[in-house]
Each structure stands twice: as structure tokens, then as C-alpha cells.
């Protein structure tokens, strides 16, 4: 399916910065969640939440970012 313009195509390389901004926002949200849990003062829960955030970032966020960048690289525009 062709789009009417290159701005309508979400795979276009025009928006190179957009996936990176989503990655940064997701990273900031995870850091804020870790910081919020650390305010409770329970070390074990803080460590578990931080490890969970790192695991989520490595397995979900980075893979999604790399997939989007690869899709943009092969865009026809």
C-alpha cells in the first residue's frame, strides 16, 4: 500500500529523530520509576525494580528501537 505523501508513511527516514526520542522518553520513565521506588527506602525492592527496569530496557525498548531503525533504512522514500 502506497501512502499519499512521504509524511504519511511511518517508515520514512524523514523522522530519524522520532524513534530516538521515544527511546529517551521510555528511559526517563524507567529511571523515574526506579527513583520513586527508592524513596520508600526498602533496599531489596529498589534493587529488584532497578534490575527489572534494566531488563525491560534491554529486552523490549532497544529491540523495538533497532527494529524501527532497520525498517526506516529500507524505506522507499
User: If helices are DSSP runs of H or I spanning 4 or more residues, what is the number of helices?
Assistant: 2
Percentage of residues in strands: under 5%
Number of domains: 1
Give the mean pLDDT: 81
Rg, Å, rounded:
17 Å
**Shape verdict:** elongated
DSSP summary, beta strand count: 0
* Uncertain parts: none
Share of residues in helices: 55-70%
> What is the oligomeric state here?
single chain
- Major sheet summary line: none
Q: What structural class is derived from the secondary structure elements?
A: mainly alpha
Task: Give the topology.
Layout: H1 17-38, H2 43-73
Task: Write up what this structure looks like.
This protein has 77 residues and is mostly helical. The protein has helices at 17-38, 43-73. It has one domain (17-72). The chain is built from two helices and no strands. Helix 1 (17-38) runs antiparallel to helix 2. The radius of gyration is 17 Å and the shape is elongated.
